[in-house]
Amino acid sequence: MNSADFTQLSQFVHYTDQRFDLPWLAGAFTDSRPQPEIPSRAVWLSLILGEVVQIGSHLQLEEETQLPQWQRWVGYPKPISHDTFGYVSERLDPAQLRRAGVWINRKLKRGKAFEASKLKGLLVVSLDANEQFCSDHRCCEDCLSREVTCKHADGQEYQKTQYYHKQVYAQVSGPGWSVLLDFEPMRPGEEECAAAVRLLRRMRAQYGPRFFDVVVVDSWYAQGPFLKSVVEELGWPVIAVLKQERFEVYQETRALTAGKKPDHQVERDGRQVQVWEVRQLRFSDSYPGPVRVVKVRERWTERQRVGQEWTHQNKEQNWIWVVAGDLDGYDGVAVRDWGHLRWKVENNAFGELTQHWHLTHCAHHHPVAVVALLWIKLLAFTLFHAFAVLHGKRFRLGRATLNEVRKQIYRSLLCGEPILFFSG
Prior knowledge:
By secondary structure, the chain is α+β, with helices and mostly antiparallel strands. The protein has helices at 8-20, 22-27, 40-52, 58-64, 68-74, 82-89, 94-110, 192-207, 224-234, 248-257, 332-340, 343-356, 367-391, 393-396, 402-415, and strands spanning 124-135, 144-151, 157-173, 179-185, 214-217, 238-241, 264-268, 271-282, 290-306, 309-324. Strands 1, 2, 3, 4, 5, 6, 7, 8, 9 and 10 form a 10-stranded mixed β-sheet that branches.
């Protein structure tokens, strides 16, 4: 075992203590139990540490809390049952957990952690929705539902109801570090845009109008009411993918750029990028304000193996982005670069959370517990990445992956020095 394995947990504890006042933060969380035998802080710290070291279920977490090292870390000298984790998670206050997220992200920004995430001097937030989990049987009053078509063994089709939870997430996306700021659960019967506007209104109240500069979204949000709410009411410019050929602005852009030379030609990551810009177009009746449209063609050569031979194939992608709000000082190349940041929320957030952080596992299906446990996962996700990316030398030097750093923290929990930061 590497000697660094023995110190990783103590380094993580020291970093979160010095950087985010984690002992004070942990003590601020309460739940609605009338006379709790187990302190809320011990339960919360166990859930946080369980996420960091890849504990996938409350049953497994119960086993880990029997470790003397674990008990020293959370400051509670007894095991904690899986029933307790479920019972407490129903009685946590998601608003308290959200305020903790705001506290941590504000600390990160004040510490210049987001400077490397700026592009052209602006900080971009990407919005996207993600389905957390679904079930054919379990449901709660906050579940969304849909009818799906299935087949019996004999091939005969039948309809069944499926229940699921889905949230809209907001992430700081950039060439450097990407961080999830907040999420908003979708309510039964509503579309993504309604949840996204509700999310952005809350973020403006909690983070302020200048915490980030631009909102980037996919084609689902290219709708007049959404653009009107974000640009005119909240004051953020929006860059949205435009795919709907039925829009007049789409057809007009195609017609105005046909046969014309591109306004800009650049190279990005081995791709030859051509950019056309059309300004002062009318978007729709619901958002009549002028918009700018940026059309992009990207071409590159991709090396592929076919049979026993390597071949080179020419590839091409075409994009159209609509820009609403004041970004007139930036050219179409900047709009293209910002638009491509949207994939960060799918790859860096949803992809990693699903593959390595058990995002799709429902530890306790209850309306409050689902939101509270998701917040705890995201808090752990942010704290760990701040430690590994901003503080940890082994990851920054390429000597360990993020997964290996998490394993080192767990090994140091088992074999390292007793941790007493949070006892008492």
